[in-house]
Design a protein that fits this description.
The protein is α/β, with parallel strands linked by helices. 47% of the residues lie in helices and 13% in strands. α5 runs parallel beside α6 and α9 crosses α11. The longest helix has 35 residues. The two termini are 42 Å apart.
């Protein structure tokens, strides 16, 4: 199961090693130096999370808080941003732009569709876009491209890792990355700063390295650690969500004694854990936090390991709550008439030249092909699962007076109709340093695919009363997709 969920391919890790560390071996620096760079002297994670106070001192970072902010009870709108480095961040950014520029009429007033988004779930590269939008709202459209998408983030990080003055210091690679993210993006912001009545709740996801399950940075999960999320730095959460093992050290969070947050999980969760193997992994992992002695410090790495498209974190919340009806009741909400899921999936299809020759592929090429196949099978299984659950939830909460309509919109490179463009997009690496042309292509791809998606058009038709466009024809006529 772990390998099936593994999203980190050799192509993700090797660019860092081959361009940064392996050349040192070729230059005669030797194995000892490589081991120093990869592991160094014993290092310890910097602990910055704080114990949960007896009483909240401000708004709690949970769904209940955002339910009180909710602007439109007729539409429940979810986005998920996948992993994939700057490639994922840029594509997600393009989708945000398109939602900003798409208007609908609600209650007789024209509104931007972006303002209807209730929840953004993200992993790895997508977490940079999600967190920056959560903190800055529309400010993302003024500064994010220069600060991150068009910035050589990977080059800056490599310089820090390979700086000889840093090799024997007390700060590990991840701590230096966190400080860098603070400097260019997050500026010491905490999750309390992301509690904005005019914005969605941002759910950043990482993976518990020891137990292999998804961990979401919302207060409900921090309750398991008896910790306060509102004071936790956003940069640390994003670093955890994107901490590729080997390249980065895990982000370490202290599991405080003094409470048993797992006891608050409803009895229905235990029953579901027996019936659903995937949920059982989450349930067992969450229950392990009650062992405060043996799990005093928890290590978090790339969220893509356990769900590279960020969708399962949202289904987890609904499952833990006892199902959609129980969740709506707990939030004091009525069922909407429309539930919209938009999955922004920047994963690539493998572009390999191995079949052009009878030469046997090398070890790295074979491993890369294998992990790509596993990733795509798991992504496909996730998408199919969410589609089925979404339809079931809509039926479950529907009433004779309110028939709930589900809309699942999957935005990915497989929807690009032009073979040449699809080839170019699939060749864009998983890295934090892309060319101007690559960033432009990714942003426009996100916008164009969403704009012409048939399910998105069907949703817009029900809101505005317009007939959906002929998507296939419009995609072919799109100036961008035919260049």
């Amino acid at each position: 199961m772990y390998l099936l969920r593994q999203s980190l391919t050799i192509s993700q890790v090797m660019p860092w090693l081959s361009s940064g560390i392996l050349p040192l071996v070729r230059k005669g620096c030797g194995l000892a130096l490589v081991l120093t760079l990869l592991g160094g002297c014993a290092s310890y994670g910097v602990i910055v999370n704080e114990p949960k106070p007896a009483q909240p001192t401000g708004p709690v970072y949970n769904l209940k808080t955002w339910a009180e902010f909710k602007r439109n009870s007729d539409i429940t709108f979810f986005l998920s941003f996948s992993g994939g480095g700057t490639r994922a961040a840029a594509m997600a950014y393009g989708v945000l732009q398109e939602l900003r520029d798409t208007t609908v009429i609600i209650d007789g007033k024209e509104r931007r569709l972006l303002d209807e988004v209730d929840n953004i779930s993200s992993v790895s590269g997508g977490s940079f876009t999600a967190a920056y939008y959560g903190l800055n709202g529309d400010g993302i459209f003024d500064t994010f491209e220069e600060a991150f998408l068009r910035h050589d983030v990977e080059g800056d990080l490599k310089k820090s890792v390979l700086n000889p003055f840093h090799w024997f210091g007390s700060k590990d690679r991840t701590q230096r990355a966190i400080e860098y993210y603070q400097d260019i993006l997050f500026h010491d912001a905490t999750f309390a700063d992301m509690i904005r009545p005019d914005g969605p709740i941002i759910v950043i996801n990482a993976s518990d390295l020891a137990k292999g399950f998804r961990f979401s940075f919302i207060q409900g999960y921090f309750d398991l650690l008896c910790s306060d999320l509102s004071t936790y730095p956003v940069a640390n959460a994003v670093a955890a969500s994107s901490a590729v093992p080997v390249v980065f050290n895990p982000v370490v969070i202290e599991n405080f004694a003094g409470c048993d947050g797992f006891a608050k999980w409803p009895p229905t969760a235990a029953q579901l854990a027996q019936e659903d193997e995937e949920f059982g992994i989450l349930y067992d992992g969450a229950s392990s936090y009650s062992d405060k002695e043996n799990r005093k410090y928890v290590h978090y790495v790339d969220g893509g390991i356990t769900d590279n498209i960020g969708l399962r974190a949202m289904t987890d919340v609904i499952a833990v709550s006892g199902g959609p009806t129980a969740l709506l009741s707990a939030l004091g909400e009525k069922a909407p008439s429309k539930i919209v899921f938009i999955s922004v999936n920047a994963s690539t299809e493998q572009v390999s030249d191995m079949d052009k020759t009878n030469k046997q592929p090398g070890i790295l090429a074979s491993m890369n092909a294998t992990t790509h196949a596993q990733l795509h099978r798991y992504n496909a299984a996730t998408i199919n699962m969410v589609k089925q659950k979404l339809a079931a939830w809509a039926e479950l909460v529907s009433t004779p007076d309110n028939q709930v309509s589900p809309y699942f919109i999957n935005i990915g490179f497989e929807q690009v109709p032009q073979i040449e463009l699809k080839y170019v997009l699939n060749k864009i690496p998983t890295s934090f340093s892309l060319t101007e042309e690559q960033v432009d292509a990714l942003i426009e791809t996100g916008r164009t695919l969403l704009r012409h998606d048939p399910d998105f058009q069907r949703f817009l038709g029900t809101v505005s009363g317009k007939q959906p466009e002929d998507t296939a024809a419009n995609l072919k006529r799109s100036a961008y997709l035919t260049e």
